[in-house]
Amino acid sequence: MDHLSKRAMDVLAGVDAVAGYTTYIELIRPLIEGKIIITTPMTKEVERVETAIETALNGKTCAVVSSGDPGVYAMAGLVFEMCNRKNIYVVSPGNSHEMKTDSRNLRIEVVPGIPALCSGAALLGAPLTHDFAAISLSDLLTNWEQIEQRLKAAAKADFVIVLYNPKSKKRNWQLKKAQEIILNYRDPQTPVGIVARAMREGQNVQIVPLKDLHKEDVDMQTTVFIGSSASVTYLNYMVTPRGYSNKYFLNKS
Amino acid sequence: MDHLSKRAMDVLAGVDAVAGYTTYIELIRPLIEGKIIITTPMTKEVERVETAIETALNGKTCAVVSSGDPGVYAMAGLVFEMCNRKNIYVVSPGNSHEMKTDSRNLRIEVVPGIPALCSGAALLGAPLTHDFAAISLSDLLTNWEQIEQRLKAAAKADFVIVLYNPKSKKRNWQLKKAQEIILNYRDPQTPVGIVARAMREGQNVQIVPLKDLHKEDVDMQTTVFIGSSASVTYLNYMVTPRGYSNKYFLNKS
């Protein structure tokens, strides 16, 4: 809760209903006592968003909550997809006068938040000071060939790579495969930051060389930061300098 | 200020000194009345961080502020680079017992924030629901060939591309060149979101087709979001669906 913005707090205080995955609802429970709570399990996000939209169309304001930022691999996209599919006319909060009389209208405000790539980076030091690519290893909605192509492209062009959804109980081989692909382009000693549950109970932060990534304990609540060729470790921190010209400004440790 | 986290507010309230670029200091002025203020112009960030570190070593707590998140193309990296260069031993806030008696010690906490890629995305709708790459077009510290290589790789592998530092008075050709490179791989009608001064005075949000990007008014306080092949517009919003299988779930508008 310390890392929510004032705007997020104000919106949560003002709404009639809150929709979210059970785990995330629990994280903000003290802020939403007395409100209508719409929870569904992890894989039922379509039903959750549908219920949230119906709730709002019926005149009750409803917040859809995600962990991190709602736009980064999270629920904001699904809300807009669903409005599109249902031909619901969307206006921004300041534009009520634009509402249409011949269709259903919804005022939507996306409240930005701190994504896992920023909370994780803050705990690691400063791994994202230069160009980076975010790639989800979940092949539930994306085919694996596309994911591999992106891993290769990002590794070859020397981006810092942030891996979302690196592993789950059912998806247990993708992270090792990603490591193999990236090792074709990057030094085995490249620092890799592994952050689980940033700013939450059970927080865990580790920095390991790329060659050992497959040995680490990683789950769905973990974000993995693969350094670029310029990334170094300093003491217990992972740092990517601002520009390539600065690489030798740093003493590798 | 509405988009600062409680942790950022608490840290600002507790420190003796605040170091930052003048524009950003002005944005939080009401929060830091009565404190030591260390400001330097935009290009003098090395001196600013050096002064902040000296201030902290002399026993006064000092916050170094950036806009957005301090880790994304911002000051956190430089603070660690400088500590490395000066052989300052860095410990995290909870670990004072680890301090060394034979060197200078600094306790550093990186407080994560909402990066421009999230505040901008929130205003556009949901352009970052799937894989994306962040690329700075500033060639002051990075050579242009490297930037071009990354633009090509990201465009070819169909990432949503977030461009930081797209243009300044002196760097006026890079954005047009980036547009040309990306047009080799992407449809001219690909939606591009252009967000200036997100959540600040003078905020401006536009969505244009990629082919028209070069005509738009863009400056250093602007972030540019180039859609992937899956990104669509719906009404005044830019949306990237969650996975490729969902592309045809959306009606293109």
Cα Rg of chain A = 20 Å
- Average pLDDT confidence of chain A is 92
Classify the helix fraction of chain A into a percent range.
Answer: 25-40%
Major β-sheet annotation of chain A:
5 strands, mixed
Strand order of the largest sheet of chain A: 7-8-11-9-10
The stretches of 5 or more residues of chain A where confidence is low (pLDDT under 50) are: none
Oligomer classification: homodimer
Strand content of chain A: 15-25%
Walk me through what this model shows:
The structure is a homodimer of 253-residue chains. Chain A is an alpha/beta fold and 253 residues long. Chain A contains seven helices and 13 strands. The first copy, chain A, has helices at 6-14, 22-27, 45-57, 75-85, 116-124, 144-156, 174-183; strands at 17-21, 36-40, 62-64, 89-91, 105-107, 125-126, 132-136, 160-164, 191-196, 204-209, 222-226, 232-234, 237-239. A five-stranded mixed β-sheet of chain A has the order 7-8-11-9-10, with helices on both faces. In chain A, helix 6 (144-156) links the parallel strand 7 (132-136) and strand 8. In chain A, helix 3 packs across helix 4 and helix 6 (144-156) packs parallel to helix 7. Chain A is elongated, with a radius of gyration of 20 Å. Chain A starts with 5 loop residues before the first helix and ends in a 14-residue tail after the last strand. The relative contact order of chain A is 0.11.
